[in-house]
Backbone:
């Protein structure tokens, strides 16, 4: 595949699956500037990894893998004149549109309260990935995923109760 | 521990594919591709290249000075060139060691470990190499200023040595400390995420061990009970 063709295919597929990007950036960043940085970084990493995409898994699974690996392993820069932290201190996603069902707003808010790794696990689970797939993406055991899921569900129940 | 039915949220989650209402066009995505990566290893590489550039300027400056003026002691020039060369050699060696990470091939645990290991092993060499840049620039600037002002580097007395030496030392310490602190800041974040991944693994292995022990105790009790019943039966019927 020639460079230009590959780029065109890449842009088309990413455009089609951009919902994944929005979900991840929305949940991992609060500040608009941080979101922009994350969009940019995920797209760059997707492009860099694109030649090794073997189509063994679906594009969305692969995209989740790259995007989550990028979001979780991307460390924030030291900020001298800022009180907020990139990723870690985020409690609620910003700019949440009003015209969406209350249920999904609460779900997003609740997930935003979780830790970085827990957010990834619950997102993959909601996308109906198996424990095996989640474990494989994160590099942990299936047992570990199941233990974490129990705790995540309990934590989400607590948070959702507060919002309701 | 109270759990709840997360299943019912799956459909809501999937329907929220474009939840933010934002749509990126092909052009916007393409523009992102033109930008620089902010990945910690890429930022490291860019910063090191910039430092190598600064040291190269120092090298060119001192070669120029040695060629065009006899006012500079050649030993000082040689020392400056050797220090710059050592610093650049360390930095270029570290650039070659930067791990190339394919985010689509590696798992998160692996990615975090690769980044942390690289930052840990490069911590002291890079702090030392970058620390050298400030003294090199201070001494170069100082000689330049003397040459421009007095057309020679006037001999320094003890007091001058103490003052200039202090500046050079402070420059080195400040530069090295800033680099060291920044890298430690990144390492701490990566390690915190690694710990977040591992915590439940430790807990789950502990739980598995406990479960195994519980089963062992159960089988031992069952065997003791069966033996006890046989013994009781034997005593009763004999």
Residues:
């Amino acid at each position: 595949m020639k460079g230009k063709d590959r780029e065109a295919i890449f842009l088309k597929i990413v455009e089609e699956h951009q919902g994944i990007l929005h979900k991840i950036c929305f949940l991992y960043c609060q500040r608009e500037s941080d979101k922009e940085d994350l969009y940019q970084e995920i797209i760059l990493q997707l492009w860099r990894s694109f030649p090794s995409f073997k189509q063994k898994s679906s594009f969305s699974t692969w995209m989740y893998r790259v995007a989550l690996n990028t979001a979780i392993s991307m460390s924030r820069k030291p900020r001298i004149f800022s009180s907020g932290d990139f990723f870690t201190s985020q409690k609620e996603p910003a700019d949440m549109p009003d015209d969406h069902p209350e249920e999904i707003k609460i779900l997003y808010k609740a997930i935003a309260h979780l830790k970085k790794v827990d957010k990834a696990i619950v997102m993959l689970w909601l996308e109906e990935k198996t424990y095996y797939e989640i474990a494989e993406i994160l590099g942990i055991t299936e047992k570990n995923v199941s233990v974490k899921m129990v705790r995540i569900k309990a934590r989400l129940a607590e948070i959702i109760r507060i919002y309701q | 521990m109270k759990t709840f039915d997360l299943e019912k949220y799956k459909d809501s989650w999937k329907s929220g594919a474009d939840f933010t209402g934002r749509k990126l066009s092909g052009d916007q995505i393409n523009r992102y591709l033109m930008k620089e990566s902010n990945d910690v290893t890429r930022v490291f590489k860019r910063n090191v290249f910039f430092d190598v550039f600064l040291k190269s300027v120092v090298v060119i400056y001192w070669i120029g000075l040695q060629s065009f003026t006899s006012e500079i002691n050649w030993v000082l020039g040689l020392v400056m060139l050797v220090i710059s060369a050592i610093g650049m050699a360390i930095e270029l060696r570290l650039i070659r060691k930067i791990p190339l990470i394919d985010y689509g091939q590696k798992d998160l645990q692996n990615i975090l470990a690769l980044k942390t290991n690289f930052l840990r092993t490069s911590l002291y060499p890079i702090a030392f190499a970058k620390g050298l840049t400030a003294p090199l620039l201070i001494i170069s600037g100082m000689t330049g200023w003397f040459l421009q002002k007095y057309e020679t580097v006037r001999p320094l007395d003890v007091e001058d040595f103490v003052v200039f030496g202090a500046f050079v030392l402070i420059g080195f310490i400040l530069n090295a400390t800033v680099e060291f602190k920044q890298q430690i800041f990144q390492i701490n974040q990566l390690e915190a995420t690694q710990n977040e991944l591992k915590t439940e693994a430790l807990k789950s292995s502990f739980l598995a061990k406990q479960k195994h022990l519980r089963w062992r105790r159960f089988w031992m009790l069952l065997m003791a009970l069966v033996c006890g019943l046989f013994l009781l039966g034997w005593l009763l019927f004999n």
In short: Residues 142-163 of chain A form the longest helix (22 residues).
